[in-house]
Amino acid sequence: MTTTTTTSGAAVPIHREPKAHASPQPYAYPPEREFREPDWSRLPGYKDVTEAEWTSAKWQRQHTVKNLDQLRKVFGDLVPEDLADSILKDQQERATMSMLIPPQMLNTMDEGDLWGDPIRRYMIPAFEDRELEWPSHPLSQRDSLHEADMWAVEGLTHRYPQKVLAELLSTCPQYCGHCTRMDLVGNSVPQVIKYRFEMKQKDRYEAILQYLRETPTVRDVVVSGGDLANLPISHVEHFVGSLLDIENIRDVRLATKGLMGIPQHFLQDDVLAGMERLARKADERGVDIAIHAHVNHANSITPLVATAVRKLLDMGFRDVRNQGVLMRGVNDSQPALLDLCFTLLDKAKIMPYYFYMCDMIPNSEHWRLAVYEAQGLQHAMMGYLPGFATPRIVCDVPYVGKRWVHQVDAYDRVNGISYWTKNYRTGIEHDDTDALQRMYEYYDPIHTLPEEGKEYWRKRTAESVTA
Ligand code: SF4
Q: Is the CB of 45 under 6 A from ligand 1?
């Protein structure tokens, strides 16, 4: 370094040669993927579909695929025979959700490699995708997050101190194979008879609103389902409008995967008009209203999705945020996660927010990652995105709630048991003096464990059967 000397004798630098430059990185930005609506006419079943049909929400719903025969009509011979057999076997023996996929989502699959396609892997599971010895973790549960245990009113989960989850309906325009609410959402399937809400919808909504009026410590409501895209806009407007009338409610988040699965829904005039009235009312009340989307792969972001998001932002929704689910074979790599985050941000103005670890529902082991794998992916994502858009990977620990994966208190890597603590009481622990001292357990998928850990679970399972 060249220096000069001041009158007091101190040496000061007089020139600095800039030497930093863009370095080769483990992740190469920007993503290489082209941003365009995939040409639907390449698929045999859509070769004569017009643009007017494609952009119609009604057409999309009428042509939503509900079974293997309809899937074959779309893809024709591009569905390999062994995949078709495996999907059928899965529906009979493993699937916890029925098939329901709008054309918009089918069009984002790679028809040349349906076995390997990430969206096919979570929307249309095949028997051969699943783990053979341990398709389910022995401690998996239908309502693995105990959301129903924490209902204050039917469909209103009060788990965190200041926020609640309102499940308005139990259907969606698309059914995801890994759905954490498989206990409640969708049609019954051979493996799962679904729970049905018992109260009349109108009474249930009123009971939810009344609870919130009487509980001033709640300020934040996630309005979910199911999927709001399946609720008539007049019902959405009535419920959310009533929420906005409650003095203590300061934050409202509307959860919909349909924004990605069937963006055509949000481009309908009546839906846009209803959403705009809600955005205006929220603004007048000084309440933040935002949309929470659920996108798991960059291929799902198309110009139609971006157009729908843009309209919502322009009408005053504070944000559209993404809560994806981390799944093996879908997005379990640094490039897959960063491609998704950058595509969300750069192409669709959607804020990457969370990635949830796939929950411990039955038959989900092939999708789930171990906590240490999730920690590695969180590390691999840091530094590339703006800090405010760097999603946290979170583990939804039963009876605890979302914990950032690096918050684990103790971790037995051999048996795959992580231990977590919490700093608040859930809605069912008012008189539980140990709730804040207790260690809560979460379990890695057994197939990720060393042989000693696998043996531990074989023995533990055998003992519980004989007990
Ligand atoms: S959209 Fe959400 S609620 Fe509906 S099936 Fe998918 S994950 Fe479940």
A: no
Q: What is the C-alpha separation between 397 and 439, in angstroms, rounded?
A: 11
**pLDDT, tens digit, 9 for 90 and up, residues 263-311:** 999 999 999 999 999 999 999 999 999 999 999 999 999 999 999 999 9
- Residue with the smallest CA separation from ligand 1 atom 8 is 179
Tokens of 208: 């939810």
Q: Is the CB of 257 under 6 A from ligand 1?
A: yes
Within its chain, how far is the Cα of 42 from the centroid?
29
Ligand 1 centre to CA of 170 (Å) is 9
Q: How close is the Cα of 259 to the center of ligand 1, in Å?
A: 12
**Strand order across the beta sheet in which 392-397 lies:** 151-153, 156-157, 163-167, 220-224, 251-255, 288-293, 320-326, 351-357, 392-397, 401-404
Q: Which atom of ligand 1 is nearest to the CA of 255?
A: 2
**pLDDT at residue number 2:** 64
408 CB near ligand 1 (under 6 Å): no
Residues 381, 345: contact at Cβ < 8 Å?
no
Q: Do you know the residue count of the chain?
A: 467
Which of 467, 466, 389, 465 is CA-nearest to residue 138? 465
> Does the beta carbon of 172 lie inside 6 Å of ligand 1?
yes
Residue 97's closest CA among 142, 140, 150, 58?
142
Cα separation, 203 vs 373, in Å, equals: 44
- Locate the ligand 1 atom nearest the alpha carbon of residue 186 and give its number: 5
Q: Is 183 in the pocket of ligand 1 (CB under 6 A)?
A: no
In the predicted model, what is the mean pLDDT of residues 74-87? 98
Q: How far is the CA of 354 from the centre of ligand 1 (A)?
A: 16
pTM value is 0.95
What pLDDT does 1 receive? 57
What integer pLDDT is reported at residue 261 of this predicted model?
Answer: 98
pLDDT at residue 7 in the model: 76
| Residue 361 clears pLDDT 60, i.e. is over it | yes
Q: Is residue 179 within 6 Å of ligand 1 at its C-beta?
A: yes
Q: Which domains occur in the chain, in start order? A: 40-129 (no CATH), 148-466 (3.20.20.70)
How large is the average pLDDT for residues 68-74?
98
Q: Is the peptide bond before 329 cis (omega within 30 degrees of 0)?
A: no
Measured between alpha carbons, how far is 34 from 283 in angstroms, rounded to an integer? 36
Query: In DSSP terms, which residues pair with 221 in a beta bridge?
Result: 164, 252
More confident residue, 60 or 432: 60
- Alpha-carbon distance of 458 to 308, in angstroms, equals 49
pLDDT tens by residue, 312-352? 999 999 999 999 999 999 999 999 999 999 999 999 999 99
Residue nearest to atom 3 of ligand 1 (CA): 226
